[in-house]
Structures are given as C-alpha cells and as structure tokens.
Design goal:
Blueprint lengths: L2 E4 L5 H15 L6 H6 L2 H12 L7 E7 L2 E10 L10 E9 L8 H15 L4 E7 L3 H9 L3 E11 L2 E11 L1
Parallel strand pairs: 4-5
Antiparallel strand pairs: 1-2, 2-3, 3-4, 5-7, 6-7
Helix pairs in contact: 1-3
Length: 171
C-alpha cells in the first residue's frame, strides 16, 4: 500500500534516484547505453532542485510513499504544446516507479491521482509522450485509457534519433 502526496524538497534525492534508475532499467536497448551510463543521481538532483524552485512554475510533482520512503514520482501540468482553445489539455511530463516495484500498482495510483488533480484544475484531457519502442509503457498507458493520437516527434540521444508518440485521454 502506498500513500500519494505532494513532493517536498527533501524528496529530491529519492525522486532523482527513482528517475535515473527508472531510465536505466526501462530504456535498455532503446536509448543508447552511453546516454544511460552518463546519467547520475547527483546531476539529476541538481537540475530537479533548480526546477522545483522556479517561481511561477505551473507543474505539480507527486510522490508515492511506501515503507522505504518515495517509491514513485509523477510530474504533470498544462500541456507544453497546447493550442489555446475551449478544452484545456493537461500533460503528464514524467512518471517513474522504482524498477524493483514495477507491476505493483504504484504507477497506476500516481496516474489516477494526477488525473484527479488535473480534472479539478479544469483540464478536460491529458496528453503524454512515450518512446515508440517502449512497448511496456505503451501497454501501461493504453490500459489506463490513453490512445496514440497520431502525433509524433523526434528526440536525439547521443546523436541517435528516437521517435516519441503522443497519447491522449479524456479525464
């Protein structure tokens, strides 16, 4: 059983560990190994501290707490590429669970809480981006009601270009 709450500054190191270890586990064979090997918890934590201290930041960060402290993290807010219109679009920017705890419902719990908060903030739908080769994540999001909407973008990792697919769902 996990409890979900707002992320605190004291959670940064744990969240960075979850994110870096999550990348290094989930993206083996997808993202170049040199990129994954170069990721460090210290570097991520340094950037995360800057990120959460930005004045006027509109994103929200939640952590899932288990017996050993934070075991999952989600970051969400307004869609970064939204065209203004009557239906507001939210976006899940990141969702990671400690690799040894994947499959225990922690990611789903975090996603449900984020969806509830986005809906209460007036968002009608949620979007997110998934690497096209990350079949496990795609199945997870599809099982959570997301569908690929036909939009894609390219991102470079150590000079290797990978395709991301945008998924959306109604909240």
């Amino acid at each position: 059983m996990v409890h979900v709450r707002e992320m605190h500054a004291a959670d940064v190191e744990a969240v960075s560990t979850i994110r870096v270890r999550g990348w290094q586990a989930a993206y083996v064979g997808i993202v170049p190994q040199t990129y994954l090997d170069a990721m460090t918890v210290e570097g991520d934590a340094s950037q995360r501290r800057l990120w959460i201290s930005q004045p006027g930041r509109q994103s929200r960060d939640l952590v899932a707490l288990g017996d050993r402290g934070p075991v999952g993290w989600i970051c969400f807010g307004p869609c970064r590429s939204e065209v203004p219109g009557p239906r507001r679009l939210g976006e899940v920017y990141a969702l990671y669970v400690s690799p040894d705890l994947i499959g225990q419902g922690i990611g789903r719990r975090l996603l449900e809480e984020a969806h509830g908060q986005m809906k209460s903030q007036g968002f009608a739908s949620s979007a997110l981006w998934v690497l096209s080769d990350n079949q496990r994540a795609r199945r997870f999001y599809e099982g959570s009601g997301y569908q690929a909407d036909g939009t894609s973008q390219e991102d470079a990792y150590d000079e290797i270009t990978l395709t991301e697919l945008r998924y959306q769902r109604v909240l």
